[in-house]
């Protein structure tokens, strides 16, 4: 028997008690003016109310916890009976209620005073008192996870993955012979996610191994970086005592120039099929089969070019060691030909061309004496698939330096076409630019026009996971690439309007509509919306039919009018808040897009969207009432919510038992696929009380250093922090997430913290969008500038420049320069679409007070911002701080 006392500061007029996994033995009113009978009470007074409740647990194993719910009252809530403790009572000041043991006779005011006397703080309150987070602090506290790198020519699925010794490999596959890949440096041809097999390997994957230096030792001595910190040209330095090996690698063609007009690309259906998790309708599968039959590569293949210079930095002669390419660590028979430097499976199947000091490499393994201050050069050229002897001879004639210069110009040209951003933190600026090229590298399709696959690492496109990549491209002015990526979802749409491309996921239709709506907000491309309107309406009808199937009375408060289905990898076919939230925001954007094309239809869609929103909110509120409250660091307790309506509370609390561990965490379904999405999906306002509860209990139960576990970019809380003006909390999440998930040298992202799935551009896309939000966010008719930047970015002499970036209000440019006690600003917005209001946050590094503003606008000291109402499109201001 469990006896508890429920103490209200001012009792609700009526209510009812429910017990799960147990039974209500008895309850009565101890303090108050009312009556209690069976499971209900009615209170006639206006003052305090105390209930004494006795609960009998079920003695048979039930696979869940004893949960008590106080419902049918103004502030319904639930609690685990086992959580009630006299020393740490359940205390909910927003509800004016506390729950303690029956032996505790303190009033609500006495309980509250005792808790406040302890001076406790929540995690977020403590965070707000700390210095702002930085990469240096975050990297010192989080794991360093080097990642394999992908290189290619963009649009073309014939890419290469590579890694150097002692660094983690993509752990989906290890070589069949020769031991661990960590013994070697290696390069592996891929058709996007598909590891290339050959007839000589029996169709199994082929990875090419090589080695420079003396081998694996007790020191690391490896440093990698991208060219200019940005371009997909890899520089690797290996220090082997006095010998320093410097490698440069990139991907180009056999002999034809690499230029914007020379890339043919891969048909999007072929590319789609090379990605993990792809799904085809019967007609799409048949079309792809025809394309495969005609896809014998004619002309040139892609080639991995690598040049390794060994320099003697010592005072006496030293030897340099090289081992040439070897397929599968010796697992496939091959021949090395010293007269040409060719490695081949047969006379007309050459897989490698190698040189030493510009001449054919004569032996597979070499030790070459290098004089002090001198260097020697080892090169190998690896075609994506073996080539004929004739083609190998042409390949051997290529000049590495010329191909390198050409490759550099190719990628620089891509970067020059969009917005230009200069930031005071070089790492972030480099990651911003490198990220754009990383995403473009695996946007597959044919050139110069047509549908592109917005792939996400080893996976094919997903309506949800591809969205941040597409939206970032829009922000950078790459609207054509973004539109071509969105066309993928429309071209693969099912006849019934469903959009589904990956692993049985059911959320893609709503997510794709939302992303198309975001594209429209950036571009106002009404002609394209007119062109694709029939497909959009097909998806609208599909979502409405889906919703109608769930408008049954037995689902009232339990998913009525919501959508049911699998949202991600776990097989959870429930009424998920994330799934229905994407449908809502997708329909909301659809109504917005059709406003000018069909006002009446737009109004109908808007009404349908708002109806769905109301049903989602009704089920959410009911779920909160029936989910257990949990403690925070300041002694208060807050309500929680499940990821779907069929459950009570976070699955990780095991209210109803179950086995929920997945993807490296007990928290995965709750923090990555849970109700927090409703804030991002515009169902719950980020500033309302429900958002307070969500953000606090997620932080304390499900995050560390304000970062979610496993696949952290699935959590939307950094966006929520910015919307709420919680800059320190945002920066804590921002820096700690990428410090541990992205390669600190090459900026390539893993998918998970347990090193699986490299070059994961979905994660990189959200990092890029978080950086975009840090620099600018829209809110209604207001453009908020620099809402999340660190104070350090405005130290003396530092600059921030955004040139021709794109927003919902069109294109704009911003230049900010700090001169210590003065900050100068230049701002230009598109006069035809500019925002009604602009708010520019300019936080002084030392928090100094503003003494004068010249040039216009109004200074808001509490928000450290300059605000312009009725903004005219241009502003030049100077902000002066106290000396």
Helix amount, in percent?
25-40%
Between the first and last Cα atoms, what is the distance in angstroms? Answer: 68 Å
Class by SSE composition: alpha+beta
Q: Quickly count the helices.
A: 20
Tally of strands: 43
Can you offer a commentary on this structure?
- It contains 20 helices and 43 strands.
- Helix 3 (135-141) packs across helix 19 (727-741), helix 8 packs across helix 20 (761-775) and helix 18 runs antiparallel to helix 19.
- It is globular and about 100 Å long.
- The protein has 883 residues and is an alpha+beta fold.
- The strands form 9 sheets. Strands 16, 17, 18, 19, 21, 22, 23, 24 and 26 form a 9-stranded antiparallel sheet that branches.
- The chain is 28% helix and 27% strand.
What does the secondary structure layout of this molecule look like, with pairings?
Layout: E1 2-8, E2 14-20, E3 22-31, E4 34-37, E5 40-43, E6 49-57, E7 67-71, E8 77-80, E9 90-92, E10 97-101, H1 108-117, H2 123-129, H3 135-141, E11 149-151, E12 158-163, E13 185-191, E14 194-195, E15 208-212, E16 222-227, E17 231-240, E18 243-253, H4 268-273, H5 282-293, E19 302-312, E20 318-327, E21 335-337, E22 342-346, E23 349-356, E24 359-360, E25 365-370, E26 375-383, H6 389-396, H7 400-416, E27 420-422, H8 426-441, E28 443-445, E29 452-454, H9 467-475, H10 479-491, H11 508-523, H12 526-549, H13 577-593, H14 599-625, E30 630-631, E31 637-638, H15 668-672, H16 677-680, H17 689-702, E32 703-704, E33 707-708, H18 717-723, H19 727-741, H20 761-775, E34 776-779, E35 782-785, E36 799-807, E37 810-818, E38 822-829, E39 837-841, E40 850-854, E41 858-860, E42 865-869, E43 874-881
Parallel strand pairs: 35-39
Antiparallel strand pairs: 1-6, 1-10, 2-5, 2-7, 3-6, 4-5, 7-8, 9-10, 11-12, 12-13, 13-14, 13-15, 15-20, 16-17, 17-18, 18-19, 19-26, 20-25, 21-22, 22-23, 23-24, 23-26, 27-36, 28-29, 30-31, 32-33, 34-35, 36-37, 37-38, 38-43, 39-42, 40-43, 41-42
Helix pairs in contact: 3-19, 8-20, 9-10, 9-11, 9-20, 10-11, 11-12, 11-13, 12-13, 13-14, 18-19
